[in-house]
Amino acid sequence: MPPLSTVDFTTTAEGVAFYRAYDRVLEKWSIDVTCVDLASQYGTTRVNVCGPLDAPPVVLLPGAGATSTVWFENVAALADRFRVYAVDLIGDAGRSIADGDRLRSVDDLMFWLNAVAEAAGLTDFGLVGHSYGAMIALAYALREPDRVRNLVLLDPNSCFAGMRAPYLAHAVPLLLRPNEKRERDFIRWETGGQDIDEDWLDLLARGAAYFPKSKTIVPKRPKRSALDELAVATTAILAANSKVHNSGQLATIIAESLPRLRSIVVEGATHHTMPMSPAAELNDALINALSAR
User: Fold this and answer.
1) Using CA atoms, how far apart are residues 12 and 30, in angstroms rounded to an integer?
2) CA distance 169 to 187
3) Which residue of 10, 52, 106, 293 has the lowest C-beta tally within 10 Å?
4) CATH number at residue 202
């Protein structure tokens, strides 16, 4: 893959199709949304914003490749109580443009998220992350506890326990040689035949196959001593049918070793569809977690 700075992805046939798919999913947001581009030393970050101007702010970080559009089943419920900032991860699929300094370390990743918050005028905020976004969110809350009002981790992988070997085995071919079919097959395997929004799956598959991504920076799983010092009100919302980990066992691990953290298991949810389904239960859990003090 050529360096990001030399690829004008927006003008390619694949790029045009990807952004059309992005816009189709964004149109599913049943609420007025403002698209904002925030500058930092790493490039321009696209943030989709909705909700009352004077409401408490909440920042949403999606899973890898999912883009900020993935929250279409959640934003209306959240925007009743919060000012929502849904972020396209820079260097990942979406409308953020990684044309500045490259993200080379977890420090850079944290500096980037700080820059996004500052550009948006946020001094403290609720922080929600799903999957890879949960890894970023947890690392950020450990480093910047004064800035994070509440932390919500949706089916967090590699935050409190490792991932299952079968999940990793299915993911490896996709990571080595991504294409649309492999992405679709992987998601359908993990979700066990659940109904999946076809527009979102099309966006995810096109992003996996064609989007010129940066190297993914992965925060390490925090040590127990670091988690013991986590000062932010934190809720882990786990998908009962996740193939990433055994959610029942993970809930037990959290309860026994990290009693200050709260965990909830949502029945019927899978890892990759969690932001979208089951929407009513998830939205109630999100609102309760973000309202806790």
Assistant:
1) 30
2) 13
3) 293
4) 3.40.50.1820
- 253 CB-side CA count, 13 A: 14
CA neighbours closer than 13 Å in the CB half-sphere of residue 115:
21
**Measured between alpha carbons, how far is 202 from 199 in angstroms, rounded to an integer?**
5
Percent of the chain predicted with pLDDT > 90: 91
Burial class (CB in 10 A: 0-12, 13-18, 19+), 163: middle
Q: What span, in angstroms and rounded, lies between the C-alpha atoms of 28 and 199?
A: 10
Cβ(258)–Cβ(232) under 8 Å? Answer: no
Answer whether residue 6 shows pLDDT above 70: no
For residue 79, is pLDDT > 90? yes
Exposed, middle or buried by CB within 10 Å (0-12, 13-18, 19+), for 282? buried
Into how many domains does the chain fold?
1
Q: How crowded is residue 31: how many other Cβ atoms within 10 Å of its Cβ? A: 14
DSSP annotation of 193 reads: T
Which of 22-26, 75-79, 193-197, 204-208 shows the lowest mean pLDDT across its residues? 193-197
pLDDT, the chain, mean: 94
∠ CA 196-282-120, nearest 5°, is: 95
266 and 242 in contact (C-beta within 8 Å)? Answer: no
Return the beta strands (E) in 196-245 as ranges: 233-239
